[in-house]
Amino acid sequence: MTTTAPTSAPTPTDREDIAKRLLRSSAKASFDPVIEVDWDAPLDRDKWAIRPERISLYGTELWERMTEEQRKELSRLEVASIATIGIWFETILMQMLVRHAYDRDPATNHVQYAYTEIADECRHTVMFAKMIGKLGSEAHRLDPVAHNLGRLFKTIAHGPLIFAGALFVEEVLDQIQREAINDEQIEPVVRSVSRIHVVEEARHMRYAREEFQRDWAQRGVVQRAYSRLLLGLVSYYSATRLINPVVYEKVGLDRREAKRAARRNPNWIDTKTWAARKVVATLNQAGAIRGPGKFFWRRAGLLGRPGAPATALGGGAK
Known about the structure:
CATH class: Mainly Alpha
CATH architecture: Orthogonal Bundle
Largest sheet: none
Protein name: Diiron oxygenase
Oligomer: single chain
Strand content: under 5%
Number of strands: 0
Radius of gyration: 19 Å
Shape: globular
Distance between the termini: 17 Å
Organism: Lipingzhangella rawalii
Order of helices and strands: HHHHHHHHHHHHH
Number of domains: 1
Helix content: 55-70%
CATH superfamily: Ribonucleotide Reductase, subunit A
Pfam family, one: AurF
Structural class: mainly alpha
């Protein structure tokens, strides 16, 4: 897959009008995961937590040596690891949204929806944390570099970076979860969590996409260049930390060998490209994936492998 030359971005709708519609949608379709998810149901260890072809080691020599039990356990640990990254970035996003709202009029629909999204994200972090425990894992702390860069990013990020960064992480999670919702081979608790997150994140992504396009159009050459570089770094550190290598040890593999195998695995690269394809299209259309920042997108495996078909491992998911 290769990115095409950017074209002019679509014109965003009226800020107050879209926020009003999103507020109405939130009132009609918001969920309390503590109640909506059956946390007391026993875990079905015969099921997967994610489609096997989405697992980082799928198709490798290591995968062939693993037992079916190890593979399914790895699926649970990898979903827990991805959920940990979700918590990490949603915590960053909540802080950025509070800063976004701080200098704006709370009487506007736009700011009221920002507060509504913060409330949604609070519930999502609790939901993900409960799912991690249910899957028999724990929220492994990120490496110090990524952890402290996250702290820096949430402090210095300005308008387009707030919403482009949010859109990236939310779109990647959304693609993986949409695929799981109606898949009978996936563990029911993962499907329930995915269903809630997909419904509520659809509103968040609309809000982020509109605000990114609106803000990006107002930025000058220097600010855009700065944003492209930081956005490339955000995408790199998010995508390359999706799977914490400690999960490999927990299924009896050598951490370094498995990490190296995953990094080189064309199936895993294709999966990341597939999961990021919509946000890559949106940001590339706006001209936000260019220059030095584009190196980090490619390095993270988000722009595809040279010569790989654009539909590699798409699997027919929408």
